[in-house]
Amino acid sequence: MNEFTLIDRYFRALDTGRSDVLVGIGDDAAILAPTTEAMAVCTDTLVADVHFLPDDDPFDIGFKSLAVNLSDLAAMGANPRWAMINLVMPAIDESWLEGFCRGFSELAGRHGVSLIGGDTTRGPLSISVQAGGTLNPERSLRRDAARVGQAVYLGGPVGDGYLGLQVARDAYRPDDEDRDYLLGRMRRPEPAVGQGAALSGIARAAIDVSDGLLADLGHVLDASGGLGAVITLDSRMFSPAAQRYLDTGGGASDLITGGDDYVLCFTVEPGDRAALEDACRRGDFEAVHIGVVTSGDGIEVRDRFGNSITTVSAGYRHFDNA
Ligand code: ADP
Ligand code: MG
After folding, report:
1. Which residues make Cβ contacts (< 8 Å) with residue 322, sequence separation at least 6?
2. Which ligand sits nearest to residue 101's alpha carbon?
3. Which residues are CB-contacts of 101 (< 8 A; sequence separation ≥ 6)?
4. In a 3-state reduction of DSSP, which class is residue 313?
């Protein structure tokens, strides 16, 4: 099989023919005709042995390679529409490709995302996905929009991605139910697409939690001119499975510094609280109030009694020891 039959056999079916795609897979470039004034575009790469293991289920790899990108679009308040795949693989493995495409397609179908092109090359296994979506730039959720006095919220539980990885490494052994839940959250994270759209125009700054809550909130505060925040730990920040980790002696700092959660962390002006409640009803999600933006620098974490606790705030950085 050559690269062209491979594209025809596996990728062409993922080009689902949206009306805003004039030319999709098959020409030198795709032609898009979005009827909107602004687009959000992003890309993310998954490398074997760094982001996944080569023998992980290809369905999960396909799912997650799109999920991490849709999560970035959600964090801007954009509606996802198109994606491209740059695939580098050591050899053509049809059963791997079939699983990969099924995982990708499962998530793409849910969000109306059409595959419009890509590239296929031989080399060490890595997957780069680009995604594009549309948005009203006036209602976008930008990292630099945090201001002193805004409330900080979480749109989903943090720590599950970290715990999922510990389970996969056999470093944490919960009961079967928690084990399945945590592995599922790590392998097939649900991007908060509906939530991002519902928050657009209501939340101010937003980010999706991929490096860990403290690191990612830190990115927002830095981008907004070097602000600080006070965060109070609340059991509603964690899933029941993560709470059982805490109950059995696990540290909350693991849960707020571990990455790969793909939930949204966002800020809201105090006067927009009613609008936020409305957005939660429309988007069918719960926003957990975790703190406030301050003029200080750094993030102070308090326990539920209001006592300051020390935490490590370093997120995962690829080149730290380079
Ligand atoms: P070119 O040589 O002009 O760059 P290619 O031969 O690389 O074109 O690709 C042929 C067509 O197949 C293009 O439309 C390209 O976007 C698409 N394509 C190639 N690889 C992939 C892939 N992995 N997923 C989706 N589309 C792909
Ligand atoms: Mg060409």
Report:
1. none
2. 1
3. 10, 11, 13, 14, 62
4. coil
Cα 60 to Cα 217: distance, rounded to the nearest angstrom: 27
Residue spans of the domains in the chain: they are: 3-138, 142-309
Binding pocket residue ranges, ligand 1, CB within 6 Å: 7, 11, 25-28, 85, 87, 115, 117-120
Q: What is the DSSP letter of 11?
A: I
CA distances from 116 to 81, 98, 126 (A): 10, 18, 19
The closest alpha carbon to 74, from 187, 191, 188, 155, belongs to 191
Our separate counts of H helices and E strands in the chain read 10, 13
Ligand 1 pocket test, pick from 45, 119, 120 with the greatest ligand atom count within 8 Å of Cβ, gives 119
Q: What are the CA-CA distances from residue 176 to residues 90, 185, 255 (Å)?
A: 35, 14, 20
Q: Which ligand is nearest to the CA of 30?
A: 1
Q: pLDDT (tens digit, 9 = 90+) per residue, 56-107?
A: 999 999 999 999 999 999 999 999 999 999 999 999 999 999 999 999 999 9
Overall pTM > 0.85: yes
Contact assessment for residue 9 and residue 15, using Cβ atoms and an 8 Å cutoff: no
May I ask the CATH architecture of the domain 3-138?
A: 2-Layer Sandwich (3.30)
Q: Using CA positions, which residue lies closest to atom 11 of ligand 1?
A: 26
| Residue nearest atom 2 in ligand 1 by C-alpha distance | 28
| Integer Cα distance of 189 and 239 in angstroms | 14
From start to end of the chain, where are the E strands? 21-23, 31-32, 39-47, 79-89, 114-122, 126-134, 151-154, 206-208, 228-232, 264-268, 288-294, 298-302, 308-309
Cα 103 from Cα 83, distance rounded (Å): 14
Tell which CATH architecture fits domain 142-309.
Alpha-Beta Complex (3.90)
Give the residue whose CA is nearest to atom 26 of ligand 1: 117
- Per-residue pLDDT of 132-157, as tens digits, reads 999 999 999 999 999 999 999 999 99
CB atoms within 10 A of CB 180: 13
Nearby residues of 245 by Cβ (< 8 Å), 6 or more positions away: 159, 163, 172, 174, 254, 255
